[in-house]
Write a structure and sequence with these properties.
The protein has 15 helices and 11 strands. The protein is α/β, with parallel strands linked by helices. The protein has a single domain, classed as Rossmann fold, CATH 3.40.50. The protein has a 5-stranded parallel beta sheet with strand order 4-7-10-3-11, sandwiched between helices. A hairpin with a 2-residue loop joins strand 1 and strand 2. Helix 4 runs parallel beside helix 5. It is globular, with a radius of gyration of 22 Å.
Length: about 375
């Protein structure tokens, strides 16, 4: 029996070949992609097959660890068993939510902000998914403690609960009476709403949310999709008067591979839920029996850089590509927009938009275009 080629592996080979060809033809661009002093993604077990025979994805290229995000990962990585890819992506999700909706770009009629959804998928509970987020949260907390305390929440149990966390003020009409006679109506605010529309949901048990979505009548999946698209949320039911406009919602979910295969239904894969997430394979990067010494690391200069980046991002406004970025984008766009079939194709069919948002988050803290 012949073996069916893995489309993921084929795509990776194709993308790398295209990228190599492009950089060879444009040395002025390649010279700017300076590899870091050490590659935090290197592991002794890279290239080994998992127990079920599937090959683990290749580590992220050194260029992925760009700028302040890369500096943070490099500072943390020696002191944690967490996967560098999980550290990087979760930091970018957190940073994108912290800077809020002011930094954005437009594609045709669509507005893309810095809000990202990411699912960290471990082979087992030993993938150090929670550990990786803990490091990211600690760094971000040094910039804005109020945000980490108030705008990072968990518990994706219902669509109505999601709307309530970023709700607009709620008003209703009440009669004005003169004795028993109604002489008119007045608008009364019954709930002040939420003034800070940023919300980072960290769901340590993403499988629980996937189970909720499978229940008949659940509104969680469509509202999560609306949160990625526009941030305008509403449930059209009599008992749910709350609505939200302009919400800036990001999601980090943790799940094991077995749970993902069990609970991510074909419906959620096909209806656009899956392709709004960045799916990150994560595993223990090393063994540290005594733990790391992250508390001995002086992060003050990095924290200052991060503070400056957050400030720049919060006042960035609309961003556009510079000429160098346009050349790269024109080269990779056909590959990103080339549709694939099956479950893989459904889960990656928003690749152009995901890369666009990742680029936006990576460069939103800089004063130049991305």
């Amino acid at each position: 029996m012949s073996t069916i080629p893995n489309p993921f592996d084929q795509l990776q080979v194709r993308r790398r070949a295209e990228a190599k060809t492009f950089l060879e033809a444009h040395p002025e661009i390649g010279s700017k992609l300076v590899p870091p002093e050490s590659d935090p993604t290197s592991r002794e077990e890279d290239g080994h097959e998992e127990n079920n025979g599937s090959k683990w994805p290749a580590p992220l290229a050194s260029q992925a660890f760009h700028g302040i995000a890369g500096a943070i990962v490099h500072a943390i990585e020696p002191h944690t068993e967490a996967d560098p890819a999980a550290l990087l992506i979760q930091f970018l999700v957190g940073f994108g939510n912290l800077i809020g909706p002011r930094a954005y770009t437009t594609v045709e009629a669509d507005r893309h902000g810095c809000n990202l959804f990411a699912a960290i998928v471990g082979v087992s509970a030993k993938g150090r998914k929670g550990t990786s987020w803990g490091h990211c949260r600690r760094v971000l907390d040094n910039v804005d403690t109020a945000w980490t305390n108030e705008r990072i929440q968990g518990g994706l149990s219902s669509g109505e609960g999601l709307v309530w966390a970023v709700r607009d003020p709620i008003e209703k009409q009440e009669p004005v009476r003169d004795g028993k006679q109604i002489t008119g109506y007045q608008t009364v605010k019954v709930d002040a709403g939420v003034s800070d529309k940023r919300l980072l949901i960290v769901e340590s048990e993403l499988a629980s949310a996937l189970r909720v979505m499978g229940r008949e009548g659940s509104t969680l999946s469509p509202l999560i999709r609306q949160a990625w698209d526009t941030g305008d949320l509403r449930v059209l039911t009599k008992n749910s008067p709350a609505k939200a406009t302009g919400a800036h919602i990001s999601i980090i979910g943790h799940i094991t591979r077995d749970e993902l295969l069990r609970f991510l239904s074909s419906t959620e894969t096909a209806n656009g839920f899956a392709n709004r997430f960045l799916w990150v394979c994560a595993r223990r990067s090393k063994l540290l029996p005594e733990g790391g010494r992250i508390h001995d690391v002086d992060l003050s200069s990095i924290i200052q850089r991060l503070t400056n980046a957050v400030s720049a991002g919060q006042s960035a406004g609309e961003l556009s590509r510079d000429e160098t970025a346009r050349k790269i984008w024109r080269r990779v766009y056909p590959v990103l927009s080339d549709g694939k079939t099956g479950m893989f194709g459904s889960a990656t069919s928003r690749a152009e938009a995901q890369v666009l948002r990742l680029a936006l988050v990576c460069f939103a803290g800089q004063s130049t275009g991305y």
